[in-house]
Every structure is written in C-alpha cells, then in structure tokens.
C-alpha cells in the first residue's frame, strides 16, 4: 500500500512539477533504446509501414511524396520512407530535436525539414491538404486530445491521402488475458505508467478512435508485438494499418 502511495506521489511530482526534467529524461531514454535494433521488432514495424514504399504523391503537380510524421521522437522511421520523399516532422518535446537531427543526417536521400516543436493537436503551421501521408507510431497512447489530433491529421492530408498508424492498445481478449487488462487499467488509473513513460496510457481503444474520426476508410489489424519481457508484455497488444481521407 505504502509503495503504491509513494509511486503515486513520485509520479505526480515528476509529471506536474518537473515536466522539463521528465521530457529531457524521456528523450534520452528513447535515444538509448533506439540504439539497440531488435530484428523481430523491426520486422513487425516493416509489416506496418511496408506500404509506404508504394505510396505516390497525390497533391496536384507534385513529383515527390510529402510525408508528415507526428510525434517523431528520435526519428526511428526514416528507413521506411521512400528515397526522394520529403519529410515534415512535429513533436512537442524539444529535447528530441538533437537526436532527430543526428538520425536525419544518416538519410541524405530523404529531404527532411527542421523539427517543429508542437503537439499534433496544435499543428496549425502545417497547411491544409499539404501532405500525401501522415505517420504515427507509438504516439496516440500519450496524446492529450486524440479527437482533436485526428481532426488535424484529416485537415493536413490531401483528399485520398493516408494515415499510417502503429500503436499499442488495451488488451482486446478479456477471456484469455483478464489480468493483463486489469494491470493496464490500474497502472494507468494510478498514473504510475504515465508518470514513468511520458504520459503513455496502457488502456486506450485507439482503433475505435481512428474509426470514429471521420476517415472514408480504415483498414486496421490487431497483432501481438513480439515482446518477451514480462512487464513490457503490457504493451504487446498492437494495432496497425491505414486510414484514408
Ligand atoms: C514512444 S515515443 C515514439 C517516438 C517515435 N514515433 C517512434 O516510433 O520511435 C512517443 C512520441 O510521441 C510524442 N508525443 C506525445 N504527445 C504528443 C502529442 N500530443 N502530439 C504529438 N506527439 C506527441 C512524444 O514526444 C514522443 O516523441
């Protein structure tokens, strides 16, 4: 009981009183994690983003694909983008910028723009109908207002353009995994997980959110990510797919 109260208090202090420290620490941890490439996880991401290589520009007169990645973090998805494409990136955590720039320099064949510090909910600086594709990976679990975020995605996409998403979600099988669901709910409700992982919530029903956002077509799949670690199995129920404007 005391340890729960202590984690709650520490989480509260970390989230509310020291947000800069939390953002800085999260960026450093994510940069460290992205250095060790797990081939099984890479294959899983490839499955989600493979279609990107076949995407064509839809903006009138455009010759290169224009991609917007929201919540880009350190920039782990460059390898999935077609050569010659043009990348715009948005992320609210400014401490990711130096890590993103270091990754960006390794992919000179992708024309990447400067890091824009903004939330996906507030990316008014990205013009209406100005991108062919939007990419989000492991972002919607931490977004404050997913409805507003997805409205912004629809606004910036050209008609016919696609959102590619890959997100961990609440366990869907309550018969086989009731305990996992309970842990996901408790750790989120007690603010333990969000405090440790920069606002990440374990129990979001993200596929439903995407389906009700107003896209003309949503093609989503559920799959368990290949994660062996006992604690991190809490994030293995995953959805991925595309949503077309
Ligand atoms: C777990 S990291 C994933 C980073 C990257 N997409 C990847 O797959 O490696 C979550 C990212 O979402 C960003 N994020 C959190 N809230 C956001 C919001 N409201 N709008 C846009 N990005 C957000 C965080 O700053 C962080 O970069």
UniProtKB/TrEMBL annotation:
The keyword Signal applies. The keyword Cell cycle does not apply. Keywords: Signal. Residues 1-15 form the signal peptide. Residues 68-165 form the Methyltransferase type domain. Pfam families: Methyltransf_11. It comes from the Eukaryota. GO terms for molecular function: S-adenosylmethionine-dependent methyltransferase activity. PANTHER family: METHYLTRANSFERASE LIKE 7B, METHYLTRANSFERASE-LIKE PROTEIN 7A. This is Methyltransferase-like protein 7A. It comes from Hyalella azteca.
